Amino acid sequence: MRAETFVVALLMVPLWSQIPTDSLVAHYPFNGNANDESGNGNDGTVNGATLAADRFGNASRAYSFDGGSHIATSSQLPVNNDVGSISVWINPSYNSGAVT
């Protein structure tokens, strides 16, 4: 099975209503900024990344990184042995065999 086929099949499963939000640490929908919309105040500071269109073509709903750019938070997000998950969409671009 090709990876693309697996991803498409996975996206067709209605999971949205099954994701609990009672212990959500941060939510970054990138609505033209890197603000945390979970209500926990873990806003991001953009360092060199630029706003870009998201996977659906919506302007200013994603960020483009150049390899040295990043988004930092003022507080340390809890990353430890607790049960949890992180969900991201990544679209790498390649230039001469190197990820850019």
Strand order of the largest sheet: 1-4
Shape: globular
Largest sheet, strands/sense/barrel: 2 strands, antiparallel
Look at the helices and sheets and give the structural class. mainly beta
Q: In sequence order, what are the helices and strands, one letter per element?
A: HEEEEEE
Tell me the Rg in angstroms. Answer: 16 Å
Tally of DSSP β-strands: 6
Number of helices: 1
Q: Beta fraction of the residues?
A: 15-25%
> Roughly what is the average pLDDT, rounded to an integer?
75
Identify low-pLDDT runs: 1-17
* Assembly classification: single chain
In which range does the helix fraction lie?
under 10%
Distance between the termini: 28 Å
Describe what you observe in this structure.
With 100 residues, the chain is mainly beta. Helix content is 9%, strand content 18%. It is built from 1 helix and 6 strands. The longest helix is centred in the first third of the chain and has 9 residues.
Put the structure in a nutshell.
This protein has 100 residues and is mostly beta strands. Helices cover 9% and strands 18% of the residues.
List keywords for this structure.
100 residues; mainly beta; two-stranded antiparallel ribbon; 6 strands; 9% helix; disordered N terminus
Task: Write the topology of this structure.
Elements (H helix, E strand, L loop, with lengths): L2 H9 L32 E4 L2 E3 L9 E3 L5 E4 L20 E2 L2 E2 L1
Antiparallel strand pairs: 1-4, 2-3, 5-6
